[in-house]
Design brief:
The chain is α/β, with parallel strands linked by helices and about 325 residues long. The chain folds into two domains: about 140 residues, HUPs (Rossmann fold, 3-Layer(aba) Sandwich), CATH 3.40.50.620; about 120 residues, HUPs (Rossmann fold), CATH 3.40.50.620. Helices cover about 40% and strands about 20% of the residues. A twelve-stranded mixed β-sheet has the order 1-2-5-4-3-6-7-12-11-8-9-10, sandwiched between helices. Helix 2 links the parallel strand 3 and strand 4. The longest helix is centred in the first third of the chain and has 40 residues.
């Protein structure tokens, strides 16, 4: 990978690094906001990109509040309104300028951090005035995976908060989402949460196409009744991954005998007991899978672990 310099252009209020689209096809999109988890986002994105010889696209979104200007008609005299409008307009411009400078500084610092560990990395920068979701959607087609921090800047000291926009991004974007927390540890293993549904089978199919995951030790884990149907579905999935070149072991946790209050607790306990680097789960599916991972259950899993979680749809 070849190192590039940051060159910014302004297009419809968005500031984007100019680059050749041929070199940027399928990058790792890392969304940064200056919170404590930003460094971890950069580290996981850089690790993923380095393993697959891809570039990293850093995205920082400026969500500037609405103008301070209000409807002053009838409140005070014409001359006073005109003077205040000029001052408020100047304040808006100053706020926008400072936000741009801060965003550029965050992107430059993030790029420098990546290049310390991966000096050969090809890093692009995107600074956009937008909401997070439309900004991500703008870059989704050219992204292999999207990396988000578990906690946003506004909630960086709240352990249970995963970031208010994660669920909306996962629901709207078809790309895999890697949600990470503070502290990067080079992944050596992963576990797939599996329940035999069509969504979980689709997740297995997606993972089978991932060359990076083949370099890791894999576990496919089902929590449920220990019966013939579940055992058959689980081991069929294991065989599919094994045939695809994965080092994968299957585990069926008997829900009738486990000492845990719910499935999420059982999964996180298994991960902790076996020192597994990351989770891979299907999100927002149908049937049992939907009831299992939809809404608050996904949130519960994300908040009960500090391990990175890859969400697949």
């Amino acid at each position: 990978m070849t190192n590039t310099n940051n060159n910014y252009s302004i297009d419809n209020g968005n500031i984007n690094q100019e680059h050749n689209t041929e070199t940027s096809d399928k990058t790792i999109l890392a969304c940064i906001d200056g919170s404590n988890v930003t460094q971890s986002v950069c580290d996981y994105a850089a690790w993923y990109a380095n393993e697959l010889n891809l570039s990293v696209s850093l995205l920082h979104v400026i969500d500037v509040p609405k103008s301070y200007r209000h409807d002053l008609s009838g409140a005070i005299g014409m001359d006073s309104r005109h003077s205040l409008m000029q001052e408020l307009s100047s304040l808006d411009e100053q706020t926008a300028r400072i936000a741009n400078q801060h965003g550029e500084a965050l992107l430059q610092d993030a790029k420098s951090h990546i290049l310390i560990s991966y000096p050969q990395a090809n890093v692009y920068s995107h600074l956009r005035r937008s909401k997070l979701l439309p900004a991500i959607e703008h870059h989704a087609d050219e992204s292999r995976i999207i990396v988000l921090g578990r906690r946003g800047k506004d909630h960086q000291n709240d352990y249970v908060n995963i970031g208010s926009q994660i669920e909306s991004v996962v629901r709207a974007v078809s790309r895999p989402i890697l949600v990470c927390s503070d502290g990067f540890i080079t992944p050596e293993s992963f576990m797939v949460a599996f329940d035999g549904s069509e969504t979980s089978k689709k997740a297995v199919d997606i993972i089978c196409k991932n060359e990076l995951a083949k370099n890791l030790v894999g576990h496919i884990v089902m929590v449920g009744h220990k019966d013939t149907i579940n055992e058959t579905e689980l081991y069929k999935a294991q065989k599919k991954m094994s045939d695809a070149g994965f080092n994968i072991t299957a585990h069926l946790i008997d829900s009738t005998k486990m000492d845990y209050p719910d499935v999420v607790t059982a999964l996180t306990a298994f991960r902790n007991d076996n020192n597994i680097s990351m989770f891979i789960i299907g999100a927002y599916g149908h049937s049992k899978w939907r009831r299992f991972f939809v809404g608050s259950t996904t949130t519960k899993l994300l908040t009960k672990t500090t391990a990175p979680v890859i969400l697949l749809r």
